[in-house]
Fold these 3 entries.
Entry 1:
Amino acid sequence: MWDKDYGGSNFEDLDFVLQTTDGGYISAGWSQSPVSGTKTQPNWDPSNNTPDYWIVKSDPTGAVQWDRRFGGTNWETCGSIQQTTDGGYILGGYSSSPISGNKSQAPKGLIDYWIVKLDGAGNQQWDKTYGGTSNDYLTRVIQTSDGGYLLCGFSESGVGADRSESSRGAEDYWIVKTDASGVKQWDHRFGGPQDDYAYHVVQTTDGGYLISGTSASGAGGDKSQADRGPSNTMDYWVVKTDANGIKQWDKRFGTSDDDLCAMALQTADGGYILGGYSAGLVNGDRSVNSRGWYDFWLVKTDAAGIKQWDTRYGGSDIDYLFTMAITTDGGFILGGTSYSGISGDKTEASRGNEDYWLVKTSATGAVQWDKTMGGNGSDWLNRLQQTTDGYYICGGQSSSPVSGEKTQALVAGSNDYWIIKLGPGIILPIELISFAGENHGTLNELTWTTASERGSERFDLQRSADVDRWETIDAIAAAGTSQQARTYKSIDPHPYPLTYYRLVQVDEDGGGATSGIIAVHASMSTELLVAPNPATDELSLYPPASFGTVSIQVFGMDGRLVKERGVDRSTSTGTLTLSVGDLPAGVYIVELRSGSTVLQATWVKTGS
């Protein structure tokens, strides 16, 4: 629907975008730019270009309403934002600044968690610093059901300052619970003997929390299961706690290679969906091989964290999943960054070095459509959300000039925020009432009926003998936008003994949606099929492959011969055609003879 570029003359990195209650959008990340482009406030330390939190509020069309910078005289990186119940916002990230600029509290260690509370107009209300004596990196902050906040990240610190529990390994998951004013209530760490990085947290329906991230630890400490791979390889790791942060259970999912979990969400059935990227082959918890190097990898569990299924999505190169959401139809929208061209599950060509890549799936993980977006530079998708109109907002950073899907130039720097609003042109899969095939001896007849169509250009009918290698055998022009049912038909004159078929709905923008797969078995019947029926100018006939030299005769309903043609099929095989434009409108019988074998079909001639 539209795209927008926000930035200044230096470097910007967008980590979060979400829809606000007024129908607009808010983007959060960090910026090194001075006042320039769409940035109206200078960095707190312009001499060193150290980054600050940078927030951009836009209206429903993406037009900037205001922007704000928050930081101190050292380094700040914002990775999380949420609109709060009072209409304001809570920002979360980490800081190494002393008291300066917007930072009102001294550091606890080297790098600390830092949250900033804003009102609805983007004005600072308060800020809080939390940390141990070393480095602490906040990756996610959420408002909890009691109006307070839950901070999630990872920590190198031991006991000291705000950390009340000793370290398990080099890096531990670390959560901090505060009240509505940001006053700490409790904290807990979770870890094994090696590195554990928490990237996401959600409050669950029972009032507890699910913390998700990546672990290189073996069994030990809070980690109850051994790692899947050799030492220092990464696995998905989730920790479920009660409302007070006390661990209830933990689960590890991985392969013998690296598996990095970006986030986990609770599903409508009370279970969980875990998303990230994996380089693994079939082993450990992975049931299907990688398409390329890294693929998107989903793991679905029940409410106790027991795996129910897993699946992967990717092309022949690298595909990183950084974000996902549960959609209103119960399925999933997955987003990240792809280096792959057309291959595997990726149906569109690369635009540049890296592109935004979205995959829409059903509730069981079946692909419904995918979409590539980018310019001819580097484009990294970090966050997406389904909007209240049923469409999607996507955000990340871009170094691309005007090219591909990018309609706005870089402001002046090397990297800008880039957000895209997706509309109805790609969000709907094929809405099929039916898709069926029927064998007629040596050919198969395929029919499908759509419930509605939205601007698609054509239907590509594809077939396969093994549900792996697909070929397009027919392209049927779609009738255009409609909310009424339409029926289409196609003939496969040379099917396999068992042929699989699927439909690809090709949209005006080149994107597509793929139907489910049907199978048609060949039989020994020798029916004659003709198409189209009715016909106006030309009639196509599909005789058995065993027919040699044939004669074609057309009779009126009174038995009178009105047209005749002979065909030597030793030099003409496959479909036969017969010109019928000179015949008056009416009902006819077409007859094929090959030796003593006679096949007939009734057809209707319409006027020109």
Entry 2:
Amino acid sequence: MTRLSVVPRLLRVAAVLLRYRLDELVDAAHLFRPLKLLRPLFGRPAARVDALPRGARLRLALTELGPIFVKAGQVLSTRRDLVPADIADELALLQDQVPPFPGEAARAIVEQELKSPIGRLYAQFDETPLASASIAQVHAATLPDGREVVVKVLRPGIDAQIARDVRLLRSLGELAQRWHPNADKIRPLDVVAEVEKMLENELDLQREGASASLLRRNFATGVDLYVPEVHWELTSARALTLERVHGVSCDDIAAIDAAGIDRKALAAKGVRIFYEQVFRDNFFHADAHPGNIWVDPARTDEPRFIALDFGIMGSLPEADQYWLAQNFIALFERDYARIAQLHVEAGWMPSTVRLDELEAAVRTVCEPYFTRPLSQISLAELVVKLFQTARRFELTLQPQLILLQKTLLNIEGVGRMLDPEIDIWAVAHPVLRRILRERYSARRTLREMRRRLPEWFHAAPQFPELVREALRRTARGEQRLLADADALDHQARQVRRLLHMMGSGLLGAALLVSATLLWSLAPQHGAWPPLCLGVAGLLAFAWGWRHNR
């Protein structure tokens, strides 16, 4: 799509914005300003539009502009540290409301993808869809053995449509990046990149099937969360077959009460499931709105959730997962100095930040919340305000945390909907403590060391030569030393960590070898001396590995 071909679509976007009287957005983009002269052509807005708040008008405009703008609005709704609360609340209501495509086309796509007539694949295939969204729609079907399934089918031509609209959205992002007065805070190109990544994942149904399969394995007992089974023999990139499940939406309070389910227990379980997905499994459902989270009405004695739609899943790098968990613990324990220190150690803020000033800013945000009963404190709201405060201290945007922030908001919303009096802190704190004890226990550390030991021994002989070569190149002037003090300090810390790891590794290896020799050559001394040496060797390994983190 050339820039010239983008112009008509841009004009339509501007026209829709004008029709919904989103004047501030038009004024912010210089390219659109001449279009204000065309405002009389659109007449006065309908009374219902003119009376709506700006957030509702923006939501309606994005819905009219199509699926790609709906997705962009959904992403923006998660950035409450950047978007005003009234707009974020309205954007969170955005849903893909599109008419279904013909069932005959869905049948043809399934047959083309699975390379067989529909009658051989399924005993019955309902051409009337159960649900329809912007990317795909879902049809009910029955397997030859009588089991009920659902078949998710991508919309025809959706790949080309999405590619075209993404290019348009990128052009709009470039305009906003150049002209919007708050572009450095909103970072529109980052939002566009997040939308692109989200859509790329949703366009591959085999990837969605793999995500469902992993989440099902993580909750294999099915006691707390049930994930439908994937039928891989009936799945491809454009068609996904899943076990059909039955339940009620988690926001249908009347149906949940009618089933006799304990909503308080259900709400607490939802919070626990979130922390287990993020910090135990490092794989979480990132689109956990009520339409995708059901409740099993048949399980009254042990209530459980049912997960649907696995197109948007999240995970974190191991380091960020660790730093985030420690931040949550420090927040639960009101250790503001620790929060400030962790933000710098994680690299989310420059090392030049004054920790005392950052600690004071965090305390200023948090203390007013702790004057309320814990059951009235919104953890999601507090995290958003901490992000806003951190931006004043040059917080580096962490794209990998955007989905997590969105999911935290969704989960807390579901929990409070089920139980308005839920104490998120009381539920979350012990769960996170338990997960961290298990994740960073001595047993897990030893298991991880055993896994990495061959890698360390393989790399160890190369370290002296690498250091020698670097010094030689520096002496010949072929490699300049870094002049930046922060970079030098970082390199020095890395070298110290490496030396600690090597030293403890060599010490641990020597102690283990000594323990083995003592056991085999001098059994008359008993088991205790070699056992003590062996334990000391393992502790040396553990200390080095921990220090290297």
Entry 3:
Amino acid sequence: MKPRIHWLMTLVVALSLVLGACAPAATAPAEPTAAPAQPTQATAPTEMPAVSTEAELDAGFSAFLGRMENYNALKMDPFVEMLAEDPAPFLLDVRQPDEVEKNGHIPGAVLIPIRELGQNLDKLPAFDATIVSYCGSGWRCTIAMTALGGLGWEHVFSLKDNSFTGYSEAGYEVAPGMPPEAPSLNAASPDPALVAVIDEALSNIPDGWGAITPEDLAAELAENPDLILIDNRTPAEIEKAGSIEAENTFAIPIEEFINMKSEWPADKSAPIVAYCGSGHRCTMAMTILWAYGYTDIHSLKGGFGAWLEAGYPKIGGAPDLDAAYTAFLGGMVKYNTIGSSALNEQLAEEPPPFLLDVRQTDEVQEKGYIEGTVLIPLRDLMKNLDKLPSFETPIVSYCGSGWRCTIAMTGLGALGWTNVTALKENSYGGWVEAGYPTVTGLPSEAVSLNAATPDPAMVALLDQTFSNIPEGWGAITVDQLASELTENPALILIDVRTEAEIAEKGVIESANRVVIPLEDFVSRKAEWPADKAAKIVSYCGTGHRCTIAMTILWSYGYTDVRSLKGGLGAWVEAGYPVVELAAQ
């Protein structure tokens, strides 16, 4: 494309260019495709029309961005409801004629292909009318919405949920073939100079409609160190989710896109890719930059979500604890426990499971260990993940009694290890009592395997959690709990057993009780105590599940959580009372 000249000419020249309207654009693909490194133009390039001042563009797009509601993205259900209103919205179909001829259209729609929109504004309603733009998938209608919003239309929306394709697949009424030719309404009078600029930008939309796939972006980032990324998400989104790593990155929220214009790349011919969460806001940004004369700007198809879904890396961002623990809890088998006999059988197999001892060094020195063990004390575990095998390798964690290995198992499960179990039946103590073989002294120092790559943000969070595990490893005895329930009426009990267990065996009497089965612990996070500094004791039947719950709560920032040693079984065995839940 030839360089676009800027707005140094007079408004009179601009008007003359508008009156000499451009020829219709050639047919292009229906859906966004991977954008080539150097976009091809659908029409012969023309010089940028003059604008009286760039300030008029600023004002138009600033007003549009300032009045957005939910980024003017219209979901399918509200759209269908709008169609039944009186008056119904003005429907603008910006697909190519061959698409409409083949697939039909929404009854009542006016067809103006996206590249011809700037030359057919007379067919649109008044500035204050409601317009819903749609296309094949939701891409081109976002371009149309942005352009019309910048020109002064006040209520323009783009139909999402896969736009016309989603509408048709949902079974809503579709009229066959082409709609009637749209009449000229002359209901609005946008600034002719701005019209000229927008028309030039829309007429020269490249093949592929400016879309770039995550795969093509990854290739471009590897091959072109000068590629510039513009992130249109909010600072809060970036902080939470992370971002795409690139040498040249600009973070400019779409809400502030014009206000932060001074931070746009200075070179209007520089290769640029805009991205956001899903691809909607960055397509708005791409459209705006086209209007200002940027010639090599693309929008990431599917946004940052598609980038992550395709398996590409990110930098920064808070770990997604909900997703991690939901996957871990959903993948549990018998709460990820293994007994000594079963472990002994597995050790005779080839290959044997990876053995992880999370006791303190002095304990191992005194009592020995199971042959083949790797020793990593619990509080140091997250600093030594390079010594663990691949995510799918079976790992058996053990400790002195079965407590610390449950904490370790929970943390590793959240990080992505899919086959981690905790040795129960008194763990190493039970192994010794059963007469299984042990080795004296300390095992050989563990070597670095670098076989798995857990999320660094998640590792950092869990390292902070594990490094600060309190003395006693978070355990509370039944006698201590009975005393605290008497002395501290504000103490909160969290029962993580199933409903059937509770109905059969009763509960510990408490004025502050939360009942959440471990399987649903994260999905019912809204029921957790609001105060993360509150005193909490979790319990289950034996002490295993409540230790998993305690570990999860620690990682979410709860600071005073303990787990009942031995669970309800130990409570009853010690002679303490239980009551029916319904009686409370």
